[in-house]
Amino acid sequence: MNSAFNNLVIYNGYPFSLIAALGLHICILTLVIYLQSGSQSEAMELIQPTIIKALFIDENPQVRNERNLERQRIERMEQERIAREEEQRQQQQQEERQAELERQREEAEREQARQALIEREELERQRQLDLERQRETEQRELDEQRQRELAEAERRRQQEEADRRRQQEVAEAASAEAARTEFELVQSATGLIQGAVQQVWNRPPSARNGMRAILQINMLPTGELLDARITESSGDPAFDRSAENAVYSAAPFTELRSLPINVFNANFRTLSLIFQPEDLLN
Question: Number of folded domains in the chain?
Answer without folding.
Answer: 2
